[in-house]
Design goal:
Elements (H helix, E strand, L loop, with lengths): L5 E7 L5 E7 L2 H12 L12 H8 L16 H10 L9 H5 L1 E6 L2 E6 L18 H9 L8 H4 L5 E6 L2 E7 L14 E3 L3
Antiparallel strand pairs: 1-2, 3-4, 4-7, 5-6
């Protein structure tokens, strides 16, 4: 409260815009503030058809929610993935439209295509503990140079081998991004 008997009130609108109202003390001021703030756009009620505007507004989300009302896979994102994969311009866009996912991280659009059995929807597996299928594989292949992905799981961040019948990590082949997904299969897609 200030010496003149008024207070600053803040109404926050969509996309971080802030509207400040100086309301008089008392019931009149509260009513005035309610009227002013209730007429501000609400980010919860805002919907988006543009994935880039959506991500800029929501910041970070692993799967688009009900605020995004556009197509499941927008063509702008599919074209960005096609470019990220260095696919010729004459190649069809359909595989990227049908077999891809997108999300928001730090206000930017990221996308992944499952074309080569990539685990787009799984978080990266950073465990260095062998799984029962790895142990079983190494018991039958004591000194195998590598353990196949169908045994390790496609989400592991490590290359594995068998050493004397025991699964061992050879090296790290990818790192998780800030949200835990494999950073080598998710691409930042710039706006058009």
């Amino acid at each position: 409260m200030y010496g003149d008997g008024t207070r600053w009130r803040v109404c926050t609108g969509v996309e971080g815009h802030t509207n400040v109202s100086r309301a008089a003390k008392g019931i009149v001021g509260v009513v005035a503030l309610f009227i002013i703030c209730s007429h501000q756009p609400s980010s919860a009620a805002t919907s988006f058809t543009d994935p880039f505007a959506y991500c800029a507004a929501v910041g970070t989300i692993d799967t688009p929610d009900s605020r995004y009302t556009g197509p499941r896979m927008p063509k702008a994102i599919a074209r960005g993935l096609k470019k990220a994969f260095a696919v010729p311009a004459t190649a069809p866009l359909t595989p990227f439209l049908q077999n891809s996912f997108w999300r928001c991280m730090d206000g930017k659009v990221y996308a992944c295509s499952v074309g080569a059995n990539l685990p787009c929807q799984e978080k990266a597996d950073t465990s260095r503990t062998p799984t029962p299928p790895m142990i079983e594989f190494c018991q039958g292949n004591a000194d195998a140079d590598g353990i196949p992905a169908y045994v390790t799981g496609r989400a592991t961040v490590y290359a594995w081998r068998c050493t004397g019948g025991t699964p061992t990590v050879v090296r790290e082949v990818t790192q998780p991004d800030a949200r835990g997904f494999s950073s080598t299969i998710w691409y930042e897609i710039p706006p058009r």
